[in-house]
Design goal:
Elements lengths: L1 E5 L3 E8 L10 E9 L1 H11 L4 E7 L1 H13 L7 E2 L3
Parallel strand pairs: 1-4, 4-5
Antiparallel strand pairs: 2-3
C-alpha cells in the first residue's frame, strides 16, 4: 500500500466557459469542485491506476468534511487527523 501525506489539502474549483471573450462579460457554464493538494492528487491518480493507496494529513471544519466526503465517494481510504477550525 502507498500512503500519501497532504499537509495542505484544498478544494480546487474549476470554472468552465463555453468561450472566452476578451473585454466582455463572460458567463460560467459549469462549476466543479475537487479535493486537491499534491498528495490527494497523487492518491487519486494511483487509485485510478488500481494501486492500493491511502491518504493522510490534517483536516478541519466544513472544508475538511467536504474533502473526506469526496475521498469516500472516490473510494480512497483516508486517515486524516482532525483539527479545530
Amino acid at each position: 500500500m502507498i500512503l500519501t501525506i497532504t499537509m495542505n489539502p484544498s478544494v480546487d474549483i474549476n470554472y468552465q466557459l463555453d468561450s472566452l471573450q476578451l473585454d466582455n462579460v463572460n458567463r460560467v457554464s459549469t462549476v466543479s469542485k475537487t479535493a486537491g493538494g499534491k498528495g490527494l492528487n497523487v492518491a487519486r491518480v494511483l487509485s485510478q491506476l488500481d494501486e492500493s493507496v491511502a491518504t493522510t494529513g490534517l483536516l478541519g471544519g466544513t472544508i475538511g468534511d467536504y474533502i473526506k466526503n469526496q475521498l469516500h465517494d472516490q473510494k480512497i481510504p483516508e486517515k486524516f487527523m482532525g483539527i479545530e477550525k
